[in-house]
């Protein structure tokens, strides 16, 4: 039922009736990115590994386990059942194995976000009222919304989401900020490839360049620009209607220095961004936050 409901958010004239699901659509997007920029399955795996590491430290995440933890638990289960233990040397070996089945090539199980039960809440107040409630508000200084055709076949390029680029353009213009000013971001990683597209569309990296930054650790919790400190949709979970607000909650926590456990970023965050997609990039909202 959930898959059917989510699929209805895609093109209902051609894609949905033909059996296309979001894993299938994002698999097509990933394949195009692979072909155009040389992206590899290992690049996708690095996104998932990083987000599970972040989610492990989030007490509100659905998956509070790293990929290493999941692999270790699988090995223990094999041993307790007297089964032959696979020769997994690291997370990549595990993610390339049958323990991580193919869903829609090149996307495997751990490339896909979880569908989650959850809720999130923010308290919004106008500038004239906010001082009644706090002396330390987080300001929304820019926001933008972009749209595109629902169907992938109607787009000139599926390695970039024009809705995200337009939403980002509007938000940057309203706030007077540029991509260089953004210190952390929560982005819509419904699939691992979606995080790569997001940080390119937002202008953090040039097209095809995000994977090198990910490989160098720039998007990790202790990196130069942490992405999805909550664990993202991949590990924190994807409560669909609550996902965008949950990003705002995480951003608030990081900017206030309130992130739980060991996931508070090292630098004082003055400027942050959230990026929330609808469907396969048919709509996008980008919001910029400042102290």
What structural keywords apply?
291 residues, alpha+beta, Peroxisomal Thiolase, Chain A, domain 1, 10 helices
Task: Provide an overview of this structure.
This protein has 291 residues and is of the alpha+beta class. It has a single domain, classed as Peroxisomal Thiolase, Chain A, domain 1. Strands 3-6-5-4 form a 4-stranded mixed β-sheet. Strands 1-2 form a two-stranded antiparallel ribbon. Strand 1 and strand 2 form a beta hairpin. Helix 3 packs across helix 7. The model has no long low-confidence stretch (mean pLDDT 96).
Profile the largest sheet.
4 strands, mixed
Q: Fill in the CATH topology.
A: Peroxisomal Thiolase, Chain A, domain 1
* Spatial shape: globular
Gyration radius from CA atoms, angstroms: 19 Å
Please, what is the average pLDDT?
96
Please give the CATH class.
Alpha Beta
């Amino acid at each position: 039922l959930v898959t059917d409901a989510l699929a209805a958010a895609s093109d209902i004239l051609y894609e949905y009736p033909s059996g296309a699901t979001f894993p299938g659509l994002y698999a097509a997007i990933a394949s195009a990115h692979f072909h155009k920029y040389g992206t590899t399955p290992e690049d996708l795996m690095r996104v998932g590994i990083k987000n599970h590491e972040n989610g492990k430290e989030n007490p509100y995440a659905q998956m509070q386990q790293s990929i290493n933890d999941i692999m270790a638990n699988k090995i223990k289960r094999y041993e307790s059942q007297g089964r032959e233990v696979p020769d997994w040397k690291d997370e990549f070996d595990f993610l390339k194995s049958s323990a991580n089945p193919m869903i829609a090539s090149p996307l495997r199980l751990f490339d896909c976000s979880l569908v989650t039960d959850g809720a999130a809440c923010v308290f919004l107040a106008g500038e004239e009222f906010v001082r009644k409630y706090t002396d330390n508000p987080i300001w929304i200084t820019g926001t933008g919304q972009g749209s595109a055709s629902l169907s992938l076949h109607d787009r000139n390029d599926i390695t970039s989401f024009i809705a995200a680029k337009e939403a980002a353009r509007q938000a940057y213009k309203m706030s007077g900020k540029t991509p260089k000013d953004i210190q952390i971001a929560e982005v819509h990683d419904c699939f691992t490839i979606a995080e790569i597209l997001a940080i390119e569309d937002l202008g953090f990296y040039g097209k095809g360049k995000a994977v090198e930054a990910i490989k160098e650790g720039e998007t990790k919790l202790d990196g130069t620009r942490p992405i999805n400190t909550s664990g993202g949709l991949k590990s924190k979970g994807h409560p669909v209607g609550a996902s965008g607000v949950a990003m705002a909650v995480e951003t608030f926590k990081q900017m206030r220095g309130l992130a739980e456990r060991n996931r508070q970023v090292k630098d004082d965050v003055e400027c942050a961004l959230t990026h929330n997609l609808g469907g396969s990039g048919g709509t996008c909202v980008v919001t910029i936050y400042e102290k």
